[in-house]
Amino acid sequence: MRARPATLFLPSIRRISLIAGAGAILLSAGLAGCSKQEAAPEPLRAVRTMVVGRDVAGGEAVYAAEIRARTESRLGFRVAGKLTSRPVELGQAVRKGQLLAELDVADLGLGAEAAQAAVRAAQVNAEQAASDVKRFEDLHAQGYISTAELERRQNTVRAAQATLEQARAQAAVQGNQARYSKLLADVSGVVTAVEAEPGAVLGAGTPVVRLAQDGPRDVAFQVPEDQIGALRGLLGKAGALRVTLWGAEGQALSATLREVAAAADPVGRTFLAKASLGKDASEVRLGQTATVSLGRPAREDVRRLPLSAVAEQGGRSVVWVLDAAAMSVQPVPVVTGTPDGNHVVVTEGLQAGQEIVTAGLHVLTPGQKVVRYIDPKRPGAPAAALPVSATASAAR
């Protein structure tokens, strides 16, 4: 038997080597995939902070207000028709009896003519019935007709007279309808809104313009629920409120609380209040912005925070408190009171001297590491307010 040459076994050896190498590579890849990777460190967050102090809140309540007319009417036509003209514009002053708008009078004119024709026809019938009854009275005197026949003819006269009166009344109504095609100003005032344009077909009563009557002016403002009790006590007291017009902060006008809504607004949950400016209303303009101020008892030793410092978490109000030693933050539940201007009053949960976050709290988590942000534009701020890494994390 002849021996096989050694070269016949070389391909098999190479295949075994390749398979063994591939297995080693796969094994090392699997081991690498199973190994745990270290989590990236949480980036620093830049926050703006403030130190809580002892403040005095209250003493004066300030509400945003608007100047309005005491009486403002939405005027429309008494009849339906097509609007052909509206000679007045928004903001225009009008006099009593001035034409505000006009309807197409074609159909109304035809109705008035038909009513006049009905009057003439009823008049002819009434005259004819009156002539007939005179002849029947002569015949009754001569004994040619019965008394019952004469009474029937007399009733015909009365019916014809009633028909004539009805036709005259209907003609008067149609005449009024034709006159109603012109919308006239009942009183002098200012047009505060335009609600219909020429060419529109309007129904009876559809508003065309809104007219603010000349006369007394009111300042209207919204009051929160917790202040409505104290405000009602000022009803009718002259000069209980001070009104400051926008752009004239140095000039305060006295006002008398005239009206407070009985029900709260369903959306804002505030009550509408109106105060009369009286004789001081000569210089104010409709729609002008104003502020209403009234005194209230001051509260001592409270914590007044910016509105941006309070967040909601789990249905509660929280404030992020900074631990200066660890440079980390934690949320602390607080109890808030009545807003005081652009600040909120915290009644429970904070102590004087604590440092809280006022900006950047929307990206914080409990135990978050932070750095203080210092506005470089603020006078006296250091040149390098934040490290580059902190600035980048704040931007993210």
From TrEMBL:
Keyword Coiled coil: yes
Pfam families: CzcB_C (PF25975)
Domain of life: Bacteria
Keyword Iron attached: no
Keywords: Coiled coil
InterPro entries from the UniProt entry: CzcB_C, RND_pump_MFP
UniProt feature coiled coil, ranges: 112-170
UniProt xrefs under SUPFAM superfamilies: HlyD-like secretion proteins
A GO term for molecular function: efflux transmembrane transporter activity
Residues in CzcB-like C-terminal circularly permuted SH3-like domain copies: 306-363
GO-annotated cellular components: efflux pump complex
Protein family per UniProt: Belongs to the membrane fusion protein (MFP) (TC 8.A.1) family.
UniProt-recorded name of the protein: RND family efflux transporter MFP subunit
